[in-house]
Structure formats: C-alpha cells, structure tokens
From TrEMBL:
This is Nephrocystin 3-like N-terminal domain-containing protein. Residues 7-17 have a biased composition (Basic residues). Residues 225-379 form the Nephrocystin 3-like N-terminal domain. Residues 1-28 are annotated as: Disordered. It comes from the Eukaryota. WD repeats lie at residues 757-789. Keywords: Repeat, WD repeat. PANTHER family: AMELOGENIN (PTHR10039), FUNGAL STAND N-TERMINAL GOODBYE DOMAIN-CONTAINING PROTEIN-RELATED (PTHR10039:SF17). The lineage of its organism: Eukaryota, Fungi, Dikarya, Basidiomycota, Agaricomycotina. InterPro entries: NPHP3-like_N, P-loop_NTPase, Quinoprotein_ADH-like_sf, WD40/YVTN_repeat-like_dom_sf, WD40_rpt. It comes from Serendipita indica (strain DSM 11827). SMART domains: WD40 (SM00320).
Length: 1302
C-alpha cells in the first residue's frame, strides 16, 4: 500500500468520526470490537506466514501484541482509572512496536508486501506517539500551575470519563488504520508463503538469499553482457552459460541480476540457487515448485494457475521432474507474453544424475517457449561441459571471473578490498591482499573474514603476514589449511573435527541448539567455537558452510590438517538421532488423550500445533532425527555401534515414532523403514531388524486410515491383532497388553510379506506399476481407478470414475504422466477407454468407444501420443482378434485384424482371458496365445502378422498365458499337457522360434499369469496363492506363499523385483519377490473359517473351516477341546443343541451332519437336496428336532422348510412346507426360533459397527479393524466377541480384563 493510499484512508476514516464529543458514546465497545476483529484476521494470516519463516515472526508478534494492547486498553475504565495508567500502557506498547520494527526484514530480503507492512507499522507508531505526547502534556499541566497544591494531593485521582473515552477512541482509530493498512500486504504474504519459507534462514534457500549483491563498480563487463543478452531480440542464443572455477563470484553475479530484474515490470524472473548445504537444494525435487511459484510472484494469472494446480493435485510437488516442469513451468510461461528469465545458479552443486536430467529437459522444451531465456552458472564439470559446450543455442562466458591477467577482474577485487579494509589496513597492505588474491574472489573474501576474527592491531599484522607470505597466490586450499590450523590451536582438535565433520554430512543446515545435541557439546561451549569459525561458516539461525569450496577441501586429499571420514560422522549422527528418538518419544507424547474418552482424532485436538512447538522446544533435534535417521543409519550401517542403536530403536521406540509421524502429518516418512530394510538384505546377522522394518511397514499400511486420523490408535487398533509369531508381537505386545484384548483365536501367525491395497466400497479388478515403480494404478469393479504409493501402500488422491461397469485393464504412459483405463461399455460387452492426467486426475481427450470389441490389453506407444487396444470381437463360431490405435485426444486412427481363430474365449473365465495377450514395453509387438497350438506375433509398426510360433502338437496342450520380454526378443508361455497332467513353462527366441527353456511341474491350480522381470533374466508366475520365480538360464525355482487362495493379473515393477497381483477377494497384493531376499513360506494353518456358533450356555464355541473341519473350543479361554471332526464341504450354518451335547452343520449342498460334542463322533447324516442351498439351521429347545430352511428363491422369495427328527437313534428329514421371506405366519421355523431365538450377542454390550469394536459401558474401548476386512458374521457374549471375516481369517477376542487407562 502506497503512502498516498494510506493518507487517503486516514482522511476517509476521520470523515466517518462522530461529531459528538465522545465518539461511540452510545456503544463504547464498537470501535474496539471492529479493530480487534480486523487484527485477529490479520493475525491468522501472519501466523501462517510467520510459521513458514521465523524471519517474519515479528509480524506475527506485532498482531498478537496489538490485540493484547487493545484488550488492556479497553480495561481502562472511564470511571476507575487514571491518565497516568493509560500513558504507561501506550508508552510500553510503542516501545515494543519499535523493537519489533527493528526485527522486520529489510532491503532485498523480501517482497514489497513486507515494505508495506513496515510503512504501516511506522505510521502506527507515529500516531501512538502523538497520543502519548497529548497524554504527557495533560499530565504535565495537571501537575503544575496554581492548582498544583490541590491536584498534587490527588495525582492519581479519577478524572472526567469523557477525556479518557476520547483518548481511547483515538487509540482505536490508529489501531483500525493499522489493521486496514496491513490487511492487503498480509494477504499478499499469504499468497507468497512458499517464498517466505525459502527466505527464512532456518530453511534451505533456493532463492539465493544467502548471497550478497555485487559491490557498486564491480563486475561491470560481465553484468553488462548478460543484461544485453537478456533484453536483446536474438532468439538463437536463449541460454547464457556463465562458467568458471569455484569461488569466482558467479552466484553473486546471478543474485545481483535477479535483484535488478525483480525491480522491472518488463521481465518476469524466476530462479533456483543450488547449494550442497542441504539435500533439497542439491537435488531437483523442489526445483519446479520453486520456479513455478516464483513466476507467479510477479504475474497474477500465473499465480492463480499455480495455486489451482496445487489444489487439483496436492502431491504435485512429488511428481516426476518432467511432469512438474510441464505443469508448473512450461504451462506458466505460456500464460504470459512477457520475456521470462530463468536463473539457475550453481547447477554443478546439484546431484550429477539429477542435473543431467534437468539440463536435458530444459534443452528439449526450449523450442516450445520462445519468450524464455535461461541464465546458467556452473563450474566446468565434465558432464555439464559435454552437454553445453558448442551447443548452438548456448552463449557462453568461460573463465573470465578470475585470474590476474584480466585487468577488470583485478580492479573488481581492488574495489572490494578498498571497501572493506580502508581505515583498517594501510594502502600497501591492501595492495598486497589484492596481489595475493590472484584474481580469486573467494580467497580475498575468506581472508577478510579471517582478519576480522582477530583482536588488536598486532594480531591483525601477524595474521596478514601469514596470509600473504605463505602459499601460492589465490590458493584457497592453502588458506583453508591455515584456518584449520588456527582452529586446532585455539580449540581442541577433536572438537573442531567433530563440529566441521558433522556439518559436512548433515542433510540440511541446523541451528546451534540442534547441532549441539547431535554432537553432544553444550550450546554455551559450542557458540564461541562456531563464532571462531565464521571465516568458513555462516551462523545466523542455522550453521552452514559459507562456500562449497570448503566442503570440497574437507573431503579432498589436499586436506592434511583435518581428515574427514564421512562414515564416522554419519555413524555418530545416526547414533545420536536414534538416541534422541528413544529418549524424547513416549506414548501420548503431546498429552492429547482424555481419561475415560476414546482416543481423539488429530484434527480434534485443541492447540495441537502449540503442543508440537513445545515438543520441538524441549527436544530441538527431534524433528531432524525423525526425518533423516535412516539416511545416516544407511551411511554408517557397517559399524556395529550403529546397529546396536538401530536394534534398540526398532525394539523399543518404533511405535512412539509412528505416533509422532501421524501427529505431524508425515506418515510418508514411513518409507525410511523400507530404505533400511533393503540395505539390511546383505547383513544376515540382522534378520530381526530387517523383519521389524518389514512388519511395521505392513502394519502401518494395513491400519493407515486409523493411524492417519488418530495417532494414538497405533497402540490399540494397530496392535491388538498382531500375529503372535511376529517380531512386533514379541517386542511390543507385553508392554501394551494391559490395554489390549486377549486373543482367544486368530489364524494369522506371522505378518504377511506383502502390502495389501484395499478399496473401501468395491473390489479391485486389475493393476499395474508406473514406469519408475513409485506408483500403482488400480482399476475396480465399480468402474473407478485409483493411484497408490507403491512403497507405503497408501492411496493417493480420490478414485476417478470411468463408468458404471468394471475396469478390465489399465496402463501408464512411458513417462508416467498419463493413465489409461478400459471398462466394459455395457454389462460384460464392448469397451470404453479413458485417458487421465496421472496426477491431477483430469481427463485427457474424449472417451474412446469400441462397442463391439472386448479389449484384453491397452498400452501407450513409446511417444505417448497413441493408445493401443488389443482384443477380440466375439462371434458364435470364431473370435476375430483386432489391434486398434487411438490418439490421446480420442480419435480412432486405425484397425488391423490379427486373424480369426477357432478358440472359444467365452468359455475361458473373464479374469484369465487377459493372460492370453502380451504387449512389449516399446509397444511395437503384440503377442497372442491361441490356446490351440501356436502363438501369434503382430507387428504394430507394419500392421502385419509375423510368422507364428508353433509351440507344440495340436490337441496335446492348451495355452493358459503368454508374456513377452521388454524388447520382444523372448516369448514365454504356460500351457497344460493333458496327457501328462502337468503344467509347462516354456521360453522361445522370438526371431528363430528356438525353445530355450522347457520346465514342467504339477499343480492343482491353473498357471495362467506370468511375466518377465525387469532384466528379462527371470520369469515370475502365479500358482494359486503362491508365486514362483524361475531363472531362465539355470531353470532354478524360488517359491513364495502369499497365503491367498487364488491370484490373478500379475505385473512386475521395471525398476526392482516387486510384484503386484489381484487376490480372489478383490484386493491387490504388492510384495518383494526378489529371489535373493526374504521369502514368506508360512502356511495358512487352520484354514479359513466358513461358519461359527456359540452354545446357549456360553461354555462352548464351534467353528468349521474350509474344506470342512469342525472344531470345538472352550468359550472362556479359547482352548481347543477334543480332536477336529471331518465335516461337510462349504458349511454355511451351524448350531449347538441347548444341552451342549450335539452339533449340527449344514452345507450349501443340503448335507446336514450331526455330531456328538463330547465323543467327536458323527451320529447322524441327512441330505435334504435343497437348491440353491441352506440358509438356516436350528435345534429345537428340547434338542430332539432340527429345523432347516433354504436360500430364498429369487423370483418368489419363498424358502423350503425341513424338519429333522431322531427316530430310534437315527436322524431323518421330511419337508415341512414353504415360508415367504417376509412372512409372519406360523410355521415350524418361526415356532422353533421363537422358543430359542437366534441372537448375534447375548447380554453383551460389545458390538461391531462401522469398522470398530466398541462397548457402551466403557467409552474408551474403541478398536478399529482394517478397512480391507469385511465382517461376514460376528457374535458377542459377556466381554468376548468373535468375528468371521471375508479375508478367510476369524478373530475371537476377550475384553474382560482390559485396562482402559492411557
């Protein structure tokens, strides 16, 4: 806000003043309330900004103090308080405001909105000063003159309330002007909160604010040449590359130009300053986010676009680099006609592989952005030189910023020395420094800081003599060696090594308090040591190296004074970080639980932010440790002391750590455990540590909805069903068992080796990995698709609706930016395909409809501009196989018929049809398995069918699935040999048809789904619920058990050995099938429970498992009673007679068997031949009759009734009539169930509802079940509950002795 606008606002506001002597006398609180509300709104904005950067914390403090001041001022009652009291409060407030004004950022360290805020605060102080002068004058007049003797006796006496009311109105008036004047800049700062985070000294600074401007009169030639290039119309050289050795001032030049260009409206400037001081500024993860938002800082259209882009895709900042560049940078530039300049400084400090990708991407996209200019600075690294040197679009300036041969450079250094040393050194001494610098700016800048370290002229002369008398001119390494020698003489060498070595390996700069904790040196001892290092360290809010050349020197062979072994310091930080996590974390670390209440949701906790801030204050190194512990552990994992601390952390504090991640909304950091687990693969001695890492990943993945919503559920919902043979159970159950139910029965004995992806209201039908392996896209039976994080198993975003019918197949584009889906066009017929922006969830182009084509596979072409659909047109006699190509905009391009085959695919189950088609990764060939005797190969480029592979004699075998290697050189198939009753896996050379592998095996399950691994050396295929990794060269097998009945739709990541398959129950399992890694070979044990019941006496509990085994249990303690009884197949209902003597079990086929409970012998068997199956079974009250009913008929809704009676010791059955589903007429079923009601729970307050087990008597009892588990049946009695689940497992829990205290 300009000064003119502020003055106008004052006049406008004054014109609204009441003409009465006491404004607002009719409502004395009106002015206060209006002003206070405005300040509160401003405080909300300032709070967000202030938390993004402590640099702006004074703004937050001003608003907070403003409200406090108004509160206390309002309390100055007109009838009870004095002028002196009011004057003291105004004076105190002014003093605080003036101190706060000094703390506000100034100069070039922030946007214009900060200047506006500063100006408004200055005006506010001036207005309050005028009011204070008026109060002082009144007090002076009251204490002097002829009435002094009278007034002196009552110096603090009450005065006319109208006077105080008038002064208070002036205070409110000034505060209201301040609130209105700061509202606009506050909103602007909220829009630029991202930049505030970049400006803050506690953050990595990609905006380059750690650098300084060129001194006036220096670097004139370089600056002038770049200015001319930036404003010229020459579009042939859109890249300016400033290349020179380290320490020559390239970043200072870049920062100076950014400062100049920020001040002009003709250009839009965006920048990224790389730095090795932090991981985020030495990688490309935040480059596009920074560039895009910086572009929006000077263009409202771009700012709105970028804001909307992040609203549409909250994870946009984590997407692949090319995608981010397209959405945040390229699209933003296309919204403006102005010239845009990218400044990318010190790209040599970016990780080598990442900078290559970034430079290649920029060069590739430049032709589409004619209004873009790029200023690059770097050192002459070989990979950068190879890419940029000699390129036609690059204008380069190399090696012109250093060396005494360049007179302009020498003159610049002379100006620098004169500016800093005039009055401190003689002219001769200053010239000696200029000569010694040898044209290298970093040398003279470091020498200046070293000279400023010393006290007194004698010490300065000695230091200067040492600087100019030793080493070659401009040798920065020699200067660093001298500094290290000085430090080792002033301080303990071990301390110096520890401090500098630790700073050199930290992944982001930290404050002195955090550093002191990480290196175990008291802050009071550390601060003076850091101060003595200011010639190589910057120590504002954080401690970091001043220049990367010092970091490089430390780790180079030239460093003989202080050898830095990075592994040692990584190991030290790893140990300290793990100690911090163990010492400072505990259950309910923020004290959010309330006695006798359920665990609160994180969002419902009052002042959670304040509680966390208190935690950071108490443990300053906790946040750094939580984020980076795994990186330091991995770097020092070969050291025994690190493994000791890691083991202790995993065994004792892992759950506390998960609670913290939930509270701060960073469950994504759970990936750190996966990084450690993979690193531990080669260390056989640490199997338990590896298992604990794997198990916690699975537990968090399975219970993620509970843990994200309520952090404390990690101690309840996540623990009570831990398999009893798991490592987590062994380490943590004893500690928390007082608050957990006793598990009377649970079939799972270990934690599965997979992550399970579960949709809430539907079943998953298909899924594939993204090209980089970081994501999975799944299709569901309700016609939706969804993205998942492939490491954490967490859903990303919301499902995207593709239609109302099941999704049959999905795929990613080769760059990972698009996803395609294919659903049924009508129920079980036709196809409709959609293309989506993979991350924004926006549909690309129009839907593609093939009403008469059953599509089996879809795939993007390598160029990502077309979509291939392979399928067939069903016919009564033959199936015509077709390949269709569509543009990504939805236009049909071509159709090619592969051929007509005498194969009846309709008799093949739907989920196996897709296994007969495979598309190569480059989308150049499609492979069809014809089921009869051959494999067809179709060339997509020529649209011709190539020579078929005749793989065996007709009639001998039947193809069940095919796969092709990434480049199409190898083709694999699984087929069934009828004559030998065995499955065969074969591999052929596509070009010659030579068979290079023929492997046979026997299996009761179909082998249909198979695929090549990423390196094409192995084949993975599914056999029921097991997977097999088959080495093509050696024909060796590795088996793994997924503990699921049947698996379908197999896919393998192209970056590692992870696999993805759909389970028969409609979830997706994601697991590591590396044959060199750990395999899960645990068995299903007791089988899946199909039915369960409890006796009327509540003494006995009975279950029946697939394929038909009855078992009786003690209902009190869960003990198995007697031997298992072989029962019916597919039992649907069971009952125990009222006298506990008999058990009856009925199957879906109408078989009813009766057993003696005590002897476990069968005493009766009846078949009622009911169709379509039994839907109820019940003993009469005397136990002499059993009534049964059938499943209702779909049309008539009628059920058949049967009566079983015992005659001469033999059970016989007879028809007992018919009943309608909704009838109330008397019949034998109603008679028996009225006398002996069927109840799910008997005199128990335990209930299962909406995914939770709860108890109305104990409000705190609240245990969730994984969202992937559907409860088919539940029974409760006393304080026990039994649940039969759709995943095949059942849980039987006793809550009798649970202690619900926190």
């Amino acid at each position: 806000m300009s000064f003119r606008k502020l003055t106008t606002l004052k006049k406008k506001d004054k014109s609204k003043k009441s003409t009465s002597s006491v404004p607002y006398a009719h409502d004395p609180d009106l002015a206060y309330d209006r002003t206070r509300n405005n300040l509160i709104e401003g405080l909300k904005v300032a709070k967000a900004v202030g938390e993004a950067s402590s640099l702006l914390a004074p703004m937050k403090a001003v608003c907070e103090l403003g409200i406090l001041f108004l509160e206390t001022t309002k309390a100055v009652d007109e009838n009870t308080s004095s002028l002196k009291q009011l004057q003291q409060r105004v004076s105190s407030h002014i003093e605080i405001l003036q101190d706060g004004l000094k703390s506000l950022p100034s100069g070039t360290r922030g946007p214009a909105a900060i200047t506006e805020f500063r100006h408004a605060q200055q005006e506010y102080i001036a207005g309050l000063n005028a009011i204070r002068d008026r109060l002082n004058d009144m007090l002076l007049r009251r204490g002097s003159g002829s009435v002094r003797s009278i007034l002196g006796k009552i110096g603090d006496a009450r005065i006319d309330p109208g006077i105080i009311a008038s002064i208070k109105e002036d205070i409110f008036h000034q505060s209201r002007i301040f609130a209105e004047a700061t509202k606009r800049p506050m909103i602007d700062l909220q829009e630029e909160v991202w930049k505030m985070a970049s400006l803050g000294p506690e953050q990595a600074r990609p905006m380059g604010t750690q650098h300084k401007l060129c001194l006036p009169g220096t670097r004139l030639s370089v600056l002038g040449e770049i200015r001319d290039w930036a404003t010229s119309d020459d579009s042939e050289k859109p890249v300016f590359w400033l290349c020179d050795i380290g320490g020559t001032g390239k970043s200072t030049v870049a920062f100076t130009l950014c400062h100049e260009w920020d001040a002009t409206d003709q250009l839009i400037i965006t920048r990224f300053f790389f730095s090795k001081n932090a991981r985020s500024t030495s990688e490309t993860d935040i480059v596009c986010t920074t560039l895009g938002k910086d572009l929006g800082a000077k263009d409202d259209t771009i700012r709105k676009y970028v804001k909307e882009a992040f609203e549409q895709d909250e994870q946009l900042g984590t997407r692949p680099l090319a995608y981010q560049f397209s959405k945040l940078v390229e699209a933003s530039i296309q919204l403006t006609a102005k010239r845009v300049i990218f400044v990318i400084d010190a790209i040599d400090e970016c990780r080598a592989d990442m900078r290559r990708d970034l430079l290649a991407l920029i060069v590739k996209r430049l032709p589409t952005l004619p209004n873009l200019r790029i200023l690059l600075t770097s050192r002459p690294e070989p990979d950068i030189m190879t890419l940029l040197q000699g390129m036609a679009i690059v204008r380069s300036m190399q090696y012109e910023l250093q060396g005494r041969d360049n007179q302009a450079n020498v003159e610049d250094i002379r100006i620098y020395v004169e500016n800093h040393f005039t009055g401190l050194l003689t002219r001769s001494e200053r010239q000696q420094l200029v000569d010694k610098a040898n044209g290298l700016f970093i040398w003279v800048a470091t020498a200046r800081l070293e000279l400023e370290q010393v006290d007194g002229p004698d010490a300065r002369v000695r230091t200067l003599t040492s600087l100019i008398s030793r080493g070659e001119g401009g040798d920065i390494n020699h200067l660093y060696a001298r500094i290290l020698r000085r430090l080792s003489q002033e301080t303990s060498l071990d301390k110096v090594k520890k401090i500098i070595g630790t700073i050199s390996i930290l992944l982001e700069p930290v404050s002195i308090r955090v550093l002191s904790k990480l290196i175990s040196i008291d802050p009071d001892d550390l601060e003076p040591i850091i101060s003595s290092m200011r010639s190589v360290l910057r120590a504002e809010n954080v401690v970091e190296f001043l220049h990367p050349t010092f970091h490089e020197y430390l780790h180079s062979s030239r460093n003989e004074e202080l050898r830095v072994d990075a592994g040692v310091y990584h190991s030290d930080v790893a140990r300290t970080a793990l100690e911090v996590l163990q010492a400072d974390l505990r259950q309910d670390v923020c004290n959010i639980s309330i006695p006798d209440h359920r665990y609160p949701d994180n969002n419902d906790v009052s002042d959670l932010e304040g509680r966390l801030n208190a935690l950071w204050t108490h443990s300053p190194a906790l946040l750094y440790s939580a984020r980076y512990w795994s990186a330091h552990v991995i770097a020092g994992i070969s050291r025994e002391e690190v493994m000791v601390h890691l083991g202790s952390f995993l065994r004792n504090s892992m759950l506390y750590f998960i609670e913290l991640l939930s509270l701060i909304g960073k469950l994504v950091w759970i990936k750190n455990f996966e990084d450690v687990r993979r690193c531990l693969r080669t260390y056989t001695a640490y199997q338990e540590e590896r298992e604990l890492c794997r198990e916690i990943l699975c537990v968090v993945s399975t219970n993620r909805p509970f843990i994200e919503r309520s952090a404390l559920h990690i101690y309840s919902s996540s623990l009570y069903l831990l398999p009893r043979k798991s490592k987590l159970y062994a380490r943590y159950h004893e500690r928390f068992k007082h608050a957990l139910p006793k598990v009377l029965y649970d079939q799972e004995v270990t934690i599965p080796s997979y992550l399970e992806l579960v949709e809430q209201d539907t079943r998953i039908s298909c899924g594939v990995f993204s090209p980089d392996g970081t994501c999975v896209v799944s299709g569901s039976e309700n016609g939706s698709i969804r993205l998942w994080d492939s490491v954490a198993g967490a859903a990303i975003g919301v499902p995207l609706r593709c239609g109302k019918f099941s999704v049959q197949t999905v795929c990613f584009s080769s760059d990972g930016t698009m996803v395609a889906s294919c659903s049924d066009y009508e129920a079980r017929s036709g196809s409709i395909m959609h293309i989506w922006d993979a991350f924004r969830g926006v549909q690309v182009g129009q839907p593609m409809i093939a009403a008469d084509l059953t599509t089996l596979k879809i795939s993007f072409t390598t160029e990502c501009d077309r979509l291939l659909a392979a399928g067939y047109k069903p016919d009564n006699l033959v199936d015509n196989h077709e390949i269709n190509l569509w543009s990504t905009t939805g236009c049909h391009l071509s159709c090619a018929t592969v051929g007509s085959f005498d194969v009846d695919l309709n008799r093949y189950m739907d989920y196996y049809k897709a296994s007969l088609v495979s598309v190569t990764a480059n989308t150049k060939r499609v492979v069809y398995g014809l089921q009869s005797d051959r494999i067809a190969i179709f060339d997509v480029v020529t649209e011709k069918r190539l020579q078929d592979l005749v793989v065996f004699s007709p009639g001998e075998e039947s193809i069940r699935g095919v796969a092709s290697s990434a480049n199409g050189d190898l083709i694999a198939a699984t087929h069934y040999n009828r004559s030998q009753s065995e499955f065969v896996v074969s591999v052929w050379m596509a070009a010659t048809g030579d068979c290079i592998l023929h492997f046979t095996m026997r299996s009761p399950f179909h082998i249909a789904f198979l695929t090549f691994t990423a390196n094409d050396t192995k084949i993975i295929h599914m056999i029921g619920g097991e997977y097999v990794v088959l080495d093509i060269a050696t024909a060796q097998l590795v088996w793994g058990n997924l503990r699921h009945y049947r698996m379908q739709n197999l896919d393998v990541s192209q970056t590692d050995f992870r696999a993805l398959a759909r389970s028969f129950s409609g979830t997706s399992l994601l697991w590591d099938c590396d044959p060199n890694g750990e395999q899960d070979v645990s068995q299903t044990g007791l089988g899946s429970i199909q039915c369960m019941c409890i006796s009327d006496s509540k003494l006995w509990f009975a279950t029946c498992t697939y394929p038909g085994e009855l078992q009786v249990w003690d209902a009190f303690d869960g003990r198995r009673i007697g031997r298992p009884m072989p029962g019916n197949t597919l039992v649907t209902f069971m009952d125990i007679s009222p006298d506990d003597a008999q058990i009856a079990a009925g199957s879906c086929f109408g078989d009813i068997k009766i057993w003696d409970r005590i002897t476990a012998t069968m005493i009766g068997e009846v078949n009622v031949s009911v169709t379509p199956g039994l839907w109820g079974l019940r003993f009469s009250l005397d136990g002499e009759t059993i009534v049964a009913r059938s499943i209702p008929d779909h049309s008539s809704r009628e059920m058949l009734l049967y009566e079983l009676t015992r005659r001469s010791g033999t059970w016989v059955a007879k028809a007992a009539g018919v009943m309608r589903e909704d009838t109330s007429e008397d019949n034998i079923w109603i008679t028996v169930t009225t006398e002996r009601p069927i109840m799910d729970h008997t005199r128990s307050t335990l209930v299962y509802k909406d995914g939770y087990i709860s108890d109305s008597r104990r409000p705190r009892l609240h245990f969730g079940l994984s969202s992937g588990i559907e409860i088919l049946q539940w029974l409760s009695y006393d304080d026990k509950i039994a649940l039969r689940c759709d995943d095949g497992w059942s849980r039987w829990l006793d809550f009798t002795n649970i202690v619900m205290s926190p």
